[in-house]
Each structure stands twice: as C-alpha cells, then as structure tokens.
Specification:
This protein is an all-alpha fold. It contains 16 helices and no strands. Helix 5 packs antiparallel against helix 6 and helix 9 packs parallel to helix 12.
C-alpha cells in the first residue's frame, strides 16, 4: 500500500510537471540511510544530498559575459543563424581578413538560407586559403540554390574530392526546389546530380537515388514519359525496395499507367 501511494504521488508529480525525482533502491532495508553502510546505501544518500543542495543552496553568480567567439559558437550550435552572424561580423571588425572568421560567417549565412549573401563571403574564404570540404560544400549548395548550377556543381565536386560523402552532397540537393513546387529547377538540379554521381564509381547507391529523385520531379511536373524513363533506369540499377516506389506520393500521377505496375514487378519486394 505504501509503495502504491508513493507511485501514485509520483505519477501526479509527472502529470503536473513538478520538480520531483524518484529513486528506487529495492535491495536496501527500511531506514537504510541511518543503518546501512553498504556501497549502494552510500550512493543513494549522496544522490539525495546532491539533489537537495542543487535545489536549496543559492547558486553562484553568473559568470562573465561570453566573448564573441563563444557567442558565435553557442548561436551556431543552437541554429540561431542571425545571432551567429551578428557575433561573427563583430569579430571581423576586430580581425579583418581572418580566414577562420570569414569561413565561419560564410557557413552560417549558407546554413541560414542566405545564399546570395553567403556566396561572396565563401569565395573570400577560399581566396584566403580555405580549402576544406565544408567550404566547397557550402559554396556549392549556395550556388545551386541561386541557380548557378555549373559553378555550383564544380564546387560540390571539389567537396567530394576533399572527402565529403557523395550521399551527403547530392542526395538532398534538389529537395528545396521540390518543396517549393519549382519542378523546373528541381529537374535541372537532379539532372546535374545524376551527371555528377555517374562519374563517381564509389557512389552507385547515390547515383540510383538521384535518378529516382529526378523521376519523382518529372512525375510531379506531369512529364510521365520522362518519369518512366528515369524510373526504369534506377530500377535497372537496383533501386528499391518495391514498397518505397509503390507508396511514394511523388509518383501518384503514374499509378494508373500500366507501365507503373510493370516496372514494380521488376523491383525486389520489401524484406
């Protein structure tokens, strides 16, 4: 009865989001905190005291205001791109021409969706000697988003050469255009990704995926013949399982066509 009452009280505390912590020690006897000297007893007593100190003792005063570098890092980890950009721009005033700060600012702008603003900053970082996979990836993605595809894919190729995963670089490349319903741009992007991954022997799975994404873009654009052509290509290369294709809402416009069922028969079923 006592245990049931405690558990009921604890459940109520959880429901009301009360600052309550419950610890169970089923191997310890009643009044263990006064009578038992075992390791487990000492552990639970210390845990209880630490909980009380944490909540009853006045915490120390806040530390000094973090410097700009820490502000930028904290905002970046929190994906607060505006705050990160503000801190990095302030750092640049104190350290004009710093390759590290310019690179970080370009990355923040690119990741925050400010592609137009990011491009000159990332180019400046490269001019200052930055040659990491990440800077080429950020610049390539920003260029692709602004429809500068030739230069964008050249930068993405440099990112892969520098060690970036082809899947990370190409798999999601045309998704933003598809999400905003711009199928013409999505098709151009996926066609570029198909050409880029075809030249990478280590990226066969990525190549299949971007062909499939291109098929989806054609289907959503109402270009059924082109969609079936690309769908057939990716299936011939081993794309699957069948359930992914059968249920994909991007391909809904193809389902009534006999070619769709015929192609599904060529795909291995789900394991």
């Amino acid at each position: 009865m006592i245990k049931e009452g405690i558990r009921g009280l604890f459940a109520q505390a959880v429901t009301e989001a009360a600052p309550w912590t419950m610890v169970e020690a089923p191997t310890l006897p009643h009044a263990f905190d006064a009578l038992d000297e075992s390791v487990e007893s000492r552990r639970v007593v210390k845990q209880t005291i630490a909980w009380l100190v944490d909540r009853l003792v006045t915490p120390p005063p806040a530390g000094p205001v973090p410097d700009l570098a820490r502000q930028a890092l904290t905002a970046t980890y929190g994906q607060d791109w505006a705050a990160a950009g503000t801190a990095l721009r302030a750092m640049l005033k104190a350290e004009p021409g710093s390759r590290e700060v310019v690179t970080a600012l370009g990355s923040v702008l690119a990741r925050g969706g400010e592609s137009v603003a990011a491009i000159p900053v990332l180019r400046q970082a490269i001019a200052l000697g930055e040659d990491s996979a990440q800077v080429h990836l950020n610049l390539g993605q920003a260029l692709v988003r602004t429809d500068e595809l030739d230069e964008g894919f050249a930068e993405l190729a440099r990112a892969v050469e520098a060690g970036a995963s082809p899947g990370f670089v190409y798999n999601q490349l045309g998704v933003p255009a598809m999400q905003r319903g711009d199928m013409a741009t999505a098709i151009r992007i996926w066609e570029g990704a198909v050409a880029a991954t075809a030249a990478l022997p280590q990226a066969a799975a990525v190549h299949r995926t971007v062909i499939y994404n291109l098929a989806c873009a054609h289907a959503r654009a109402g270009q059924s013949d082109a969609a079936f052509e690309r769908l057939g290509q990716t299936i011939a290369l081993g794309f699957g399982p069948r359930a992914i294709i059968a249920r994909d809402e991007d391909l809904v416009s193809l389902r009534a066509d006999p070619r769709f069922g015929a192609l599904l028969e060529k795909v291995a079923p789900s394991p």
